[in-house]
Amino acid sequence: MPITIRPLTAVFAGEVSGVDCRRPLDRDAVAAIEAGMDRCAVLVFRDQPLTDEEQLAFTRHFGELENYVTPGHIRQRQEQRLGPGIADFSNLDKDGNIMSAEDRVWFFKLGDRLWHSDSSFRPVPAKYSLLSGRVIPSWGADTEFADMRAAYDALDERGKEEAEALVCEHSLIYSREAIGFTDLSPEECAAFRPVRQPLVRKHPVTGRKSLFLASHAGAIVGWTVPEARMFLRDLVEHATQREFVYRHKWRKGDLVMWDNRQTMHRARRFAQGEVRDVRRTTLGGEAAIPARAGLGQAA
After folding, report:
1. What is the mean pLDDT of each run of 10 residues along the chain (299 residues)?
2. C-alpha to C-alpha distance for 235 and 152, rounded to whole angstroms
3. Which residues are registered as beta bridge partners of 263?
4. CA quadruple 287, 9, 281, 173: dihedral positive or negative?
5. HEC states along 167-183?
6. Which residues, 6 or more positions from 29, have their beta carbon under 8 angstroms from its beta carbon?
7. Rounded to the nearest 5 degrees, what angle is found at the Cα of 183, between the Cα atoms of 179 and 186?
8. pLDDT at 272
9. Nearest CA to 149 among 258, 256, 223?
10. Which DSSP string corresponds to 182-220?
11. What is the DSSP string of 143-171?
């Protein structure tokens, strides 16, 4: 069966048919999906009842998994429910019970409801993320995606010129402070040390420019913090206008794949007391700023 991609919105996002994500892909299938990602930036695969091993195998068709020594979370390895390579975005603890609303890990997870791009707080941000819906609550839990290419295109010429000259500092500290989570140890603060990313990125295949924003961005090099945060807030409001956003309503078995270089996303609220079990695999990308003059790491 040939691979087809049906548009889900007028701007971006597509639904893929003709692919069984549990089976190995040939070279043509991989190329077709990658071309769809370049064009749509978000792809939805329905009815994919994956195991963790199958999700990992499917993900590896498109690159190397992220592999970092420093954490992107605050849960220690011995406290984690899932194996290596699979990120747990559920509301479950290591024993499979629903987390307490007072759980420190749950507080940290609430930051995912802010607009962000995965791993923008790392020196080398993520390429693709793939999220598998294993158990879906009866209400809520949608994921919204914003097309950062369209957001860039909609800027006037002065706005584009200004944005292209700017470098931001990204850290999990900034995004968690935004929701009032400041309970970080000295070791966690050191692990979440800010890194520098350009405000505008150019796609390596299509050449399209996009804004590279996230709630993790809390400073602009050479600007005062208050002025930078007001500017970034205005830019996020611009980039997340309804015409730039696709809202994914989850079904059990959905696999959603997105390009972090071209989109932002955020999780939405869901029914309290119900299980939400979604699992993410993530591919490492490429440095957004070439290694020069120490720009990859904040001073």
Report:
1. 90 95 98 98 98 98 88 71 94 95 94 97 96 98 98 98 98 96 92 96 97 98 98 98 97 98 98 95 86 46
2. 10
3. 147
4. positive
5. EEEECHHHHHHHCCCCC
6. 3, 19
7. 130
8. 84
9. 258
10. ----HHHHHHT--EEEESEEE-TTT--EEE---TTEEEE
11. EEEEEHHHHHHTS-HHHHHHHHT-EEEE-
- What pLDDT is recorded for position 71? 65
Residue 239 to residues 40, 115, 232, 234, 280: CA-CA distances in angstroms? 17, 10, 10, 9, 24
Structure confidence at residue 294 (pLDDT): 42
Question: What token pair was written down for 162?
Answer: 């200004």
**How much is the pLDDT for 1?**
75
CA distance 54 to 152: 36
User: Whole-model pTM?
Assistant: 0.94
Classify residue 27 as left (phi > 0), alpha (psi -120 to 50) or beta.
Answer: alpha
pLDDT of residue 77: 65
- pLDDT, residue 68, reads 79
